[in-house]
Design brief:
Elements: H1 20-26, H2 32-38, H3 43-58, E1 61-65, E2 67-70, H4 99-113, E3 117-120, H5 130-143, E4 148-151, H6 154-164, H7 168-178, E5 182-183, H8 193-199, H9 206-218, E6 223-229, H10 235-252, E7 255-262, H11 280-294, E8 300-302, H12 305-308, H13 310-316, E9 323-326, H14 346-354, E10 359-363, E11 369-372
Helix pairs in contact: 2-10, 3-11, 4-5, 5-7, 6-7, 6-9, 9-10, 10-11
Length: 373
Amino acid sequence: MEIRVNINKGVHRHGYVSNPLEKALYGDKLGITDIEALFDVDLWDLGMAAESLTRKYFGDVVTFIPNMILNYTNVCVIACRFCAFYRPPGHPEAYTLSVEEAVRRVEYVDKTFGIRQVLVQGGINPELGIEYYESLFKAIKARLPHVAIHGLSPIEVDYLARKHRMSYAEVLDRLRLAGMDTLAGGGGEILVDRVRREIAPHKISAGDWLLIMETAHRMGIMSNATMMYGHLETRRDWAEHLYNILQLQRRTRGFLSFTAWNFEPGNSELTRVIPYPKTSATLLRVVSVARLVFRNELPHIQSSWLSNGLDAARLALRFGANDFGGTLYEERVIPATGLSMPVLTRDDVVNLIRGLGLRPAERDNWYRVTKYY
């Protein structure tokens, strides 16, 4: 299918392309200002351009992974203003799963649904040291060797390094030896320190987040990149965020995928400032620009249904995304905002993808296709 994009030609007298959409389509290198300008392009033109690249790289295949989220604790001392899930130490609603209970939950979900990945996600709990994570990962691998551990984030790595007076590389090496397969992209939010100080003043800087990711990549530990939009940031901040991720990807080739999701106000402190979430059109714009910026250098762009909803997530598969993410059994962070979320089975995801006229394919933790439907 030929896709024609309606763009105004813009060429400087010396022959350089000036239109940001043309530059993206021609594969020209984009600066922060170019990326910012892309966010102002007509949404339909963005979508058609992003869709044309996605079909060029992946044909009609859309991947997904049967997985679960293991929220092993809700205790956290970082106190991000956008988070409704965390509880401070000593709070009556605070919990921390024992290693045995955590593994039991993973076993139950695997027995019930069959999974390929567990995303280990919690908070900065001062009562937990690196030994807890080592015991947890080793136990999961011992009982469920077929399940990949996509675990923790640069935030936990920084905390453990400071707690145990180790380097980032030492922490990552111990976690890898215990069974961690890939590093999750949590804590990225917006990689602009001015924004981070407003929404999560106790979290690590953008530079530290990128440094930990680069350290992991240099060690052969791959990860994913994320972006949370729709709070106190600007479009210029979106552009800087994508640019920072792309520059690191060009150095290391260590990011497997990119996922963007909207801030969901719900019960968080930030709700008093931002009472309403962005529309689905914002998600489509971000996904489309991400495809145009990353092209095939960071190939896999997820269509996150968890906070964006199923309808928006399906549309995103026609606006540049090529992966539907996971089934996400047991997720507890989004329900903490007050939103209900569906339970998606493998068959549900397959049917959602087929409904778009696309071909579903199950993948593993490293985005390798294991089965076509």
